[in-house]
Amino acid sequence: MTRAHLTGVRTIRALVASVLIGSVALPAAATAAGNRISADSATAAPCHRACLERALRTDLRSYLKARGKAEHISAAGLSVRFPGARGTIDVAAGTTRVGGKQPVRPSAVWQIGSNTKAFTSVILLQLEAEHRLSIDDTLGKWLPRYQRWNDVTIKRLLNMTSGIPTYDTTLPFLHAYAAHPHRNFTPRALVRYAAPGTPTTGYSYSNTNYVLGEMIIEKATHHSYRHELRARIIRPLHLRSLYYRSDTYPRSVTRREPAGYFFNKETPGFSSLMGRDVSRATLSWARGAGGIIATTRAMTVWEHALYGGRLLPAQQEKELLSLVSVKTGKPIKHTTPSDPQGFALGTAQLTTPQTGRIWFYEGETLGFRTLHMYLPKSGVIVAMGLNSQPTVDQIGNLAISVYITLKSNGLLRPPG
Q1: What's the rounded mean pLDDT across residues 131-158?
Q2: What is the CATH number of domain 11-408?
Q3: Which of 14, 90, 351, 368 is most buried, judged by most C-beta within 10 A?
């Protein structure tokens, strides 16, 4: 993907680089009294809850100290969920604004960007399980107005092999957004920006795919995307701190949201937004590709259900986690050291010698980045948030720092 993708995932490269270079310092293992968090395969003395909270908060503070100025960030949040444990460890560091004094809380909400995509995929797969559509159906069946893409299947939309270009790198879209950051972009308007573009080949990241997926959901159900999201996922999982609006969010949500700063010098036409707080601007440009807001804790509840088989029948769960190689665009069973990056239906898999095989995703909006990791050998889920979109993103370093903290405290199984 190009750097101009506004809700894209660029952490595959960042996380790989962080792990392989090994540039993250090992946090000191803490020891303190408190409620103990156990690990069946602990290889080091396990940390108690209070000391682990301190160690993870130190990871956030260290990142803010090292990268705060360069990435124009003031706030960081983190949640960790362990298998069999009730609740999560939730920590935060920094302030709600650059130069501000109000501390950011663990209950802060973050724009989760492309982490939204898995929600869209799950709804479509639930509809398939109900025999209301098939992911092998074509756009010609559901959205025949887009004749140029008639033979593209829903599955190819979701695994980024559709050949349909993304709308959010086009100059007409970028200029339209920069001129009116509070404009309400409809799904059809977004797709129109992509329609004249050159078809892509192989694996190619495109937010247009998921806006089309949102349109198919509404066509198949005769309900809004928001209605289906609430009825199928938010309410059943009791995600009271996860929200979706197709445009701007109400004060009842945004009062818990830090400022979110646009600081990406590589996006053409956005000079007027540089350094500005864009957290209250419209998310209608992201929609089913990246429009959800949530706490990091709510993200871990969702990921626990996503990877734990609680949302779909076995066949659809298998389809959800089916991979294509980011390198070749061809189906693969799983990632390997020689082909380490894979994309499924709204989530991604990575293999490295240090971490083994993990699932993860980074979502990004104009003012926020959120990353989740699921470590299947240990059953641990991590979610984190930062409040900027910078030119150079090193959230992968923060992810690896947290990984090392958990590993050094005996809370992760060794990769293998």
Answers
A1: 98
A2: 3.40.710.10
A3: 368
